[in-house]
Amino acid sequence: MTGTQTGASAPGGHGAPLAVVLTDDHPIVRAGLRAVIDAEPDMSVVAEFPTAEDLLAAVRGGLSADVVCLDLRFGPGRMTGAQAAAELSAIAGPPVLILTTYDSDAEILSAVEAGATGYLLKDAPTEELTTAIRAAAAGQVALGPLVQRKLLGRLRAPSVSLTRRELEVLELVAAGRSNDEVAAELFLSRATVKTHLVHIFDKLGVQSRTAAVARAREQGVLAER
């Protein structure tokens, strides 16, 4: 296994520390998070993984936790944090707290819609992080102040709303993928990809792939690159 597990796999209970799992592709980030979490008397890191795929394999293999702290992106070709959150939600896995550097409306909404319990930026103060972990473990929504402001602003001035699948298609189009490549990556038929693009164009009021990407970025639907 490429991840690291440390001792107990049972989640916190009866006074035991909250069991926290870290998933981030940067060892230095994991080390920093571990230091902060392990310094708290009521929580402990029980496992850490460099990819979302490793995390899911461990959970499906029986790893239990009170909270999973999960990055949003793991590089080209890797499962994203939002996709992993959706998988964990589907199998009734542990609550997911997204810890990332990405703060666009599209990234936040994608993760929350996928089932993430919380969303926090990596530069958040230590107290904010530990409070969010406790809240997520208790089944409460844990959103950082900046994230709350963004979501509130989105509610006050709603923009175009794409489905999660439409957003995935558009993200791949923005990355320069052809329809055939999008279909292969998302395990869809080429016709289905075309249908999604028609819906995307209609919602954004555009007539081309390039215009769709530009309009989505202008409206905060798609993260800036």
What is the count of β-strands?
7
- Order of SSEs, N→C? EEHEHEHEHEHEHHHHH
Cα radius of gyration in angstroms: 18 Å
Strand order of the largest sheet: 1-3-2-4-5-6-7
General form? globular
Helix coverage percent: 40-55%
Question: What portion of residues belong to β-strands?
Answer: 5-15%
Largest sheet: 7 strands, mixed
The chain-level structural class is alpha/beta
Number of helices: 10
The residue-averaged pLDDT reads 86
Low-confidence stretches: none
Span from first to last CA? 33 Å
Which helices and strands, and how do they pair?
Elements: E1 4-5, E2 18-23, H1 27-38, E3 43-49, H2 52-60, E4 67-70, H3 81-90, E5 96-100, H4 105-114, E6 118-121, H5 126-137, E7 142-143, H6 145-156, H7 164-174, H8 179-186, H9 190-204, H10 209-218
Parallel strand pairs: 2-3, 2-4, 4-5, 5-6, 6-7
Antiparallel strand pairs: 1-3
